[in-house]
Design brief:
6-stranded antiparallel β-sheet; 830 residues; 7 helices; Immunoglobulin-like; disordered C terminus; flat; 8% helix; mainly beta; membrane
Length: 830
């Protein structure tokens, strides 16, 4: 049944308190063991008014079905009170196990109590708890609910047998543990002994230990245990127990000279092999005395190339494995081999060692010598280490000029293990082999370790994480050093400290761009680069980025299928076995046009222009009709000449076209206004004001319009005849006034003319035609001097008012200026 359930026997219909004494439930207030059956009985006594049919049972306010009832008899009972019972469940107590007792020594070296502890194998319930009673003999005991207890014993009964056991009791039963029967001293745990350590100069490899026992041997006879260690040892070293026995001093032997050692001692009851050891004593550290070095220096070399074929060899060494003191100097001797004999020695050379006490002598490296092997067959280097008490054995190293190629180790493997590198290789089978040297180099820091020829595996010692080490294995022979085999390794890898810096290789194209990046510096890689990933995205988009995987040995990538005239952002991610790191971002804009597009457009436009130009050359007539020429007055030159002048033909200038005659009017000032009145009246018929155009192409002062007549036939196109230079003229009074009657003073009219390189307009050509018709004829003029009367005859017998021919010189003796400026070239198109 369940624990803590309430069984209730209830009487139907009758609830008067008069029936309380007639209803009884059995058992009364029971404690039930878990896992057993329980039967409850409800009895009606001292009444015949009720029977068993008037009763029913409830379990925790839940009515139990009647098919589970068992009617004992049919006696009617009268019940006036509802009564119930409460059940508490639990386990019987189990036998306590693993009873142990101990008596601790106090600081005043006394013993006053016995502490015991035990274990239970079965769980207990809170409704039926178990109590424990610790008993010592039959007279001492203590009660507790825990799994330990303490009994006071004062004074402590040494050499007296004690019997100790534990009782477990609850309402369901009781159980006892195994009885312990031992003498009282077998229960004690003493304090550690007090220890002193002494070094003696006459014994550099030993230390003398002395200690004081924590308790008088009258009460407890003790045995001792000693352990010691040095700073470089992997753990504690223990002295065998039979070597100590009941002693109070001991000499540690076989130690290393000039080495600090830490010593501890503890004790226990000698007669009880299973007694309690005391705690270890406090650490006592003492350094052994100094002695002369007992091992050779660790001699090695490094090769430095100076850019030529010459090899510079640096001779380096570490302190001997057993220096037995502070090394103050090294003595070095270098011998050169000539004709298979070692000679040409310069004797021993001393190299002082300047090293502070804080520096680790085992890892410190001293540079002894630097020599060249350019012209030598080989070099033999010998070295000894010296301390305050003597010299070490001699170490030597042969440096051949040429290393043998056939002697190399194979199948080199390097992997990390607990902060170190494990180096393993396939051993060589060579009679001249004397051992191996395992070298590791990182960021200029060099170290090495010698391995015997019978071994093919070693540890490098503690190394730094995230640092790349180049590990080399050299075979060492009696005649020299073989060539190494190398491999890089990390003790622990991490994500790179920084990513690659990416940039463009050249300019981006229309839909492609080439990205390049530099290798991450070795100190920032923190591991082997396994791959690169190039990410790029368009503009400021957060999503939609594209990634491309790149092998670790590649430092560039060409992006293709990009959009033209668009901004892209790219970056490179470097990954190791332990993580990834992104590099800096770089933005670029692709070109609007593909390569060659602008050149093709320019070439096409040039070809079109060339074709149009060639078309214009071969189809000049059509071009002239499509684009008529308009004269430009800004390109005219004006000559000033008098209307009373003669016309004189001049030969063509160098810039003029051959076969074209040029008429020049040479005008000269007349003596009076009246003399020019007739000529002015003639011009007045053609002009409407004192200053006006001559009617482009018309004549003035008997000069005809200038027409360039080609050497072609008279039936040539008129367009060719109008493409010559045209003279423009106007009559200007000498006074600066217009539209006024001349005064009494004689005034001279000035006829201004200009030349234009522009062709005539249609209206101007019409005027020329009119003049030609008025003159009555049109002739080709030969290139000779003629007068205006010879060119144009007077119409209908009129007498022309011809200017008088001017003298060659003016009255002041200077040559009269020409009123007609020569034509500087052909016409210019509109």
């Amino acid at each position: 049944v369940n624990r803590g359930c309430l069984w209730t026997c209830i009487l139907l219909f009758l609830f008067s308190s008069d029936f309380q004494s007639h209803l009884l439930t059995l058992p009364q207030n029971p404690v039930i063991e878990i896992g057993t059956n329980f039967t409850a009985t409800c009895l009606i006594s001292n009444t015949v008014e009720v029977t068993a049919d008037d009763l029913y049972w409830k379990l925790s306010n839940v009515t139990i079905s009647r098919d589970q009832y068992r009617k004992v008899n049919s006696t009617a009972l009268s019940v006036t009170f509802i009564h119930g019972i409460s059940l508490r469940t639990g386990y019987r107590p189990e036998k306590p196990e693993n009873l142990s007792c101990i008596s601790f020594q106090k600081e005043d070296k006394s013993f006053s109590s016995l502490q015991c502890s035990w274990e239970t194998t079965r769980r207990q319930t809170p409704t039926v708890p178990v109590q424990f009673r610790l008993r010592v003999m039959e007279v001492l005991s203590t009660i507790t609910k825990d799994h330990w207890a303490e009994v006071k014993l004062s004074p402590y009964p040494f050499h007296m047998e004690l019997e100790v056991w534990v009782e477990a009791v609850n309402q369901l039963g009781a159980a006892e543990s195994v009885h312990l029967r031992k003498e009282a001293q077998h229960f004690v745990k003493t304090n550690p002994p007090e220890v002193t350590v002494t070094s003696e100069k006459s014994f550099p490899t030993s230390l003398l230990l002395n200690w004081t026992p924590p308790v008088n041997q009258v009460f407890v006879k003790l045995t001792y245990q000693i352990r010691f260690c040095s700073p470089k040892s992997p753990g504690w070293s223990h002295v065998p127990l039979p070597d100590i026995n009941d002693q109070r001093n001991f000499r540690l032997q076989g130690l290393r000279a000039y080495t600090p050692y830490t010593v501890q001692v503890r004790c226990r009851d000698m007669e009880n092999p299973h007694g309690y050891w005391s705690d270890w004593s406090q650490n006592k550290t003492t350094t052994t005395p100094e002695d002369k070095p007992s091992s050779t220096p660790d001699l090695w070399r490094t090769v430095v190339y100076n850019g030529t074929s010459e090899r510079l060899v640096q001779i380096i060494c570490k302190d001997p494995e057993f220096p037995n003191g502070r090394i103050t100097r090294f003595e070095v001797k270098v011998e050169k081999q000539r004709d298979r004999a070692w000679n040409q020695s310069e004797g021993w050379k001393s190299v002082l060692v300047n090293r502070s006490e804080a520096e680790d002598a085992e890892t410190s490296i001293t540079l002894l010598e630097q020599t060249s092997l350019s012209n030598l067959e080989s070099v033999k280097v010998s070295v000894v280490a010296v301390n305050s008490l003597g010299r070490s054995p001699e170490a030597s190293l042969i440096l051949p000029v040429k290393l043998p190629d056939h002697a190399r180790v194979e199948e080199l493997k390097v992997w990390p293990h607990e902060g170190q590198l494990v180096v393993e290789w396939k051993p060589l089978r060579n009679k001249l082999l004397s051992g191996y040297v395992v070298e590791w180099l990182s960021e200029g820091r060099l170290d090495w370790r010698r391995v015997s020829k019978t071994s093919n595996r070693t540890l490098t010692g503690r190394l730094d994480p995230f640092v790349c080490y180049n590990v080399s294995v050299y075979p060492v022979f009696s005649r020299g050093i073989g060539k190494p085999v190398q491999m890089s390794a990390y003790v622990e890898q991490g994500a790179p400290l920084r990513g690659p810096t990416v940039k463009l290789n050249g300019k981006p194209g229309h839909n492609e761009a080439e990205l390049v990046w530099e290798e991450i510096p070795l100190r920032d890689r923190r591991g082997f680069i396994t791959k690169y990933a190039v990410f790029y995205k368009l503009g400021e988009e957060i999503r939609g980025r594209t990634s491309v995987a790149v092998p670790a040995n590649s430092m560039s990538l060409k992006l293709e299928s990009l959009m033209g005239d668009s901004q892209y952002e790219a970056w490179v991610q470097a990954s190791t076995a332990a993580g990834s790191t992104n590099g800096s971002h770089h933005s670029f804009i692709t070109m609007k046009y593909a390569a060659g597009t602008i050149e093709a457009i320019s070439l096409g436009a040039g070809l079109v222009i060339l074709l149009v130009f060639l078309f214009g050359i071969y189809k000049r007539d059509l071009v002239k009709h499509l684009w008529p020429r308009v004269p430009d007055g800004r390109q005219s030159s004006i000559g000033t000449w008098s209307p009373d002048c003669s016309m004189k033909a001049e030969p063509p200038k160098e810039s003029c076209v051959s076969g074209i005659s040029v008429l020049v009017s040479m005008c000269e000032s007349q003596s009076g206004f009246e003399e020019d009145k007739a000529s002015l009246s003639l011009r007045k018929d053609k002009y409407t004001s004192e200053e006006h155009s001559s009617g482009i192409g018309g004549s003035s002062c008997m000069s005809s319009p200038r027409q360039s007549v080609s050497d072609s036939d008279e039936g040539a196109d008129m367009t060719d005849t109008t493409a010559s230079t045209v003279q423009y003229s106007s009559v200007v009074a000498s006074s600066a006034y217009k539209g006024q009657t001349p005064g009494s003073q004689p005034q001279h009219s000035v006829f201004s003319r200009s030349e234009s390189t522009q062709p005539l307009l249609d209206s101007e050509e019409t005027v020329d035609t009119f003049v030609q018709e008025a003159s009555g004829r049109f002739e080709r003029l030969p290139p000779q001097d003629i007068t205006c009367s010879e060119v144009f005859g007077p119409p209908d017998g009129e007498q022309l008012d011809c200017c008088q021919e001017a003298d060659e010189l003016q009255s002041d003796g200077r040559t009269a200026p020409s009123s007609y400026m020569p034509q500087l070239g052909g016409y210019k198109p509109q």
